[in-house]
From TrEMBL:
CDD domains: CuRO_1_CumA_like, CuRO_D2_2dMcoN_like
Protein name: Multicopper oxidase family protein
Pfam families named in the record: Cu-oxidase (PF00394), Cu-oxidase_2 (PF07731), Cu-oxidase_3 (PF07732)
Signal peptide: none
Coiled coil location: none
Span of domain Plastocyanin-like: 46-160, 177-256, 322-425
Source organism: Paenibacillus thailandensis
Keywords (A to Z) from UniProt: Copper, Membrane, Metal-binding, Oxidoreductase, Transmembrane, Transmembrane helix
Length: 427
């Protein structure tokens, strides 16, 4: 039953997607063609990987690796990626998680393209307009394929650095079989650096679980969420943060005069990133949990959201052991959110089921307006994936400026395959 639902989700055989016109995709504009071109090739294949803990995993990889190669480009580059499928019978696609691309390039099997079969290829092209930390993963039966290893990091560097940075390290957390990995390793990840250096740590959670991370040894700032800069981020100390499945946190940390910085998982002791080479810091005896609700400061020009919306939707996320639902229904039965180009859209998401549901929207970045009825007090917060926890309610705002047919789903990909998926559709 689960498998059936999953393939239906990703083959797009749903009432939601059948009841709408074929995807209309905006083409690249002339000026896009003047951007510098960056070409990449990714070959998906079955590969047996020897982990550094001695285990061997029958993984699915890009270019023999899981995570696949890190793709790093500069803001404004035109990215051209050719996907080859060597021998994955189920077919493969690539979805550019968090990057706003034309819908024809979104990589959702059965919705924006057919899955690429063994021996076939598909070329994606888009302009990387917004700097930030993103990732890519297969979106054909994604709960299976991402977990098998078909994923990687995608970094868009800004044309002009916003912060002085001596080291820029991207680290992806994933679960392969039963092992937690950081950039493919089970042991600790070591980032180079000497006292006084500023390290930008780009953390991507590619697991299905919320990870609570604690920084010991130095104060730090959270400078971006899901690739979107925080305005005026303050220093945090003895503070952990919950990074939900699919989310990215960018940290800026100065390596102290003596000592080591440890960014570690609270639940999984072995999962830690260290830099500097002094003595190991002791773990904070007590810790606060980061909240974006009052972090940073508002933009000087004040509110940017409208006072009324062209479209408002309310989505209640629910769950029992058999299905994950939105408004009591699962994928096949959930009507799409229909919008028109230019609409100002409000989406209210309520977590009624308990459990963590990181709510992800393709093709758009949304602004968080409020949490549990309270407007945000600090920096404007823009995300593509919002972690919702038991009984929380968030109001999200977006401008419908990217026509097409887009997936909206929980990024616990098991929940997505068990029904917590729907579509955003432009009429
Ligand atoms: Cu990373 Cu449809 O998701
Ligand atoms: Cu969920």
């Amino acid at each position: 039953q689960l498998h059936h639902l999953e393939s239906a989700v990703h083959a797009g055989h749903s009432r939601a997607s059948e009841s709408v016109e074929p995807v209309s995709c905006e083409s690249l504009t002339a000026s896009d063609h003047e951007s510098p071109i960056r070409k990449f090739e990714l070959t998906a294949a079955r590969t047996s990987i020897d982990l550094d803990n001695g285990e061997t995993v029958e993984a699915w990889t890009f270019n023999g690796l899981s995570p696949g190669p890190e793709i790093r480009v500069t803001e404004g580059d035109r990215v051209v990626v050719t996907l080859f499928n060597k021998d994955i019978e189920e077919g493969v696609t690539i979805h550019w998680h968090g990057i706003v691309v034309p819908c024809s390039q979104d990589g959702v099997a059965g919705v924006t393209q057919d899955a690429v079969k063994p021996g076939e290829q598909f070329t994606y092209t888009f302009v990387a307009t917004s700097p930030g930390t993103y990732w890519y993963h297969s979106h054909q039966m994604s709960s299976v394929q991402a977990e098998k290893g078909l994923l990687g990091q995608f970094i868009v560097e800004p044309k002009e650095a916003e912060y002085p940075t001596d080291h820029d390290a991207a680290i992806l957390l994933q679960r392969l079989d039963s092992s937690f990995l950081m950039n493919g390793k089970t042991g600790e990840a070591i980032v180079p650096g000497k006292p006084g250096d500023n390290v930008r740590l780009r953390l991507t959670n590619a697991t299905n679980d919320t990870m609570e991370m604690l920084v010991d040894g130095a104060p730090y700032r959270i400078i971006a969420l899901d690739g979107n800069a925080i305005h005026d981020p303050g220093l945090l100390e003895s503070t952990s943060f919950n990074i939900g499945a699919g989310q990215r946190y960018d940290l800026l940390i100065e390596i102290p005069e003596q000592g080591k910085v440890v960014v570690g998982s609270v639940q999984e002791e072995s999962l830690k990133i260290t830099f500097g080479d002094g003595p190991e810091p002791s773990r904070a005896a007590s810790r606060k949990l980061f909240s974006f609700v009052d972090y940073g400061t508002p933009m000087p020009d004040g509110r940017t959201e409208p006072l009324s919306f062209d479209q408002s939707f309310e989505l209640k996320l629910g769950q029992n052991i058999f299905v994950s639902t939105i408004n009591g229904k699962s994928f096949h039965e959930i009507p799409p959110m229909n919008v028109k180009k230019g609409d100002h859209v409000k989406i209210t998401v309520k977590n009624e089921g308990g459990g963590d549901h990181p709510f992800h929207l393709h093709g758009h970045t949304f602004r968080v307006l409020s949490k549990n009825g309270e407007p945000l007090k600090g920096s404007p917060i823009y995300l593509d994936t919002i972690l919702t926890q038991k009984d929380e309610t968030y109001e999200l705002y977006l401008v419908a400026d990217n026509p097409g047919l887009w997936m909206v789903h929980c990024h616990n990909l098991q929940h997505a395959s068990m029904g917590m998926s729907m579509m955003l559709n432009y009429e």
